[in-house]
Write a structure and sequence with these properties.
0% of the residues lie in helices and 55% in strands. With 154 residues, the chain is an all-beta fold. The protein has a 4-stranded antiparallel beta sheet, with no helix packed on it. A 4-stranded antiparallel beta sheet has the order 10-9-12-13, with no helix packed on it. The protein is elongated and about 90 Å long.
Length: 154
């Protein structure tokens, strides 16, 4: 005896939906899935990658799972945080932009600055080689972790 079955498979296409990115400031550059555009049509349930940037502002990046047509309001901030951490205790850490300075003795120092500025980090400790580096045109939060090398004895 042979059982015979008939199967019916129904495929339904997910509806197309539109995602629009509305940036503040309004003249910021919007990239969706790597292409400069502020709106895209996709299938419901698709994941969309976005990046919103403008000189002097902190870049925003992320992913959105689009379930229905929507507008995402993305507000750029001018504030960036630079965090500097030392691997040793007792290090003097200085984080400086063109206007502000944060100096801390210990293992860490944090400076909140404006996007687009240059930030210089310096770490010093007696008996160790001083380390300094300038980071140009900061556009996102930055975390720096350094280990100082023992100074060469003379």
């Amino acid at each position: 005896m042979t059982d015979k079955y008939q199967y019916c498979l129904v495929l339904r296409k997910a509806p197309q939906v539109t995602l629009t990115i509305s940036p503040t400031p309004s003249d910021a550059t919007v990239k969706i899935n790597g292409t400069t555009q502020s709106s895209i049509s996709v299938y419901a349930g698709d994941t969309v990658n976005f990046e919103v940037s403008k000189s002097g502002y902190r870049t925003q990046k992320g992913n959105i799972i689009v379930q229905r047509s929507a507008t995402a309001n993305i507000e750029l901030s001018t504030a960036c945080t630079v965090s500097a951490e030392a691997q040793q205790d007792g290090v003097t850490i200085t984080v400086t932009d063109t206007i502000n300075t944060a100096t801390q003795s210990g293992r860490s120092a944090v400076l909140t600055t404006v996007a687009g500025r240059n930030v210089t980090v310096t770490m010093t400790k007696q008996g160790y080689t001083t380390k300094t580096q300038t980071f140009s045109n900061i556009s996102e939060n930055k975390r720096i972790i350094w280990s100082l090398a023992a100074a060469a004895s003379s």
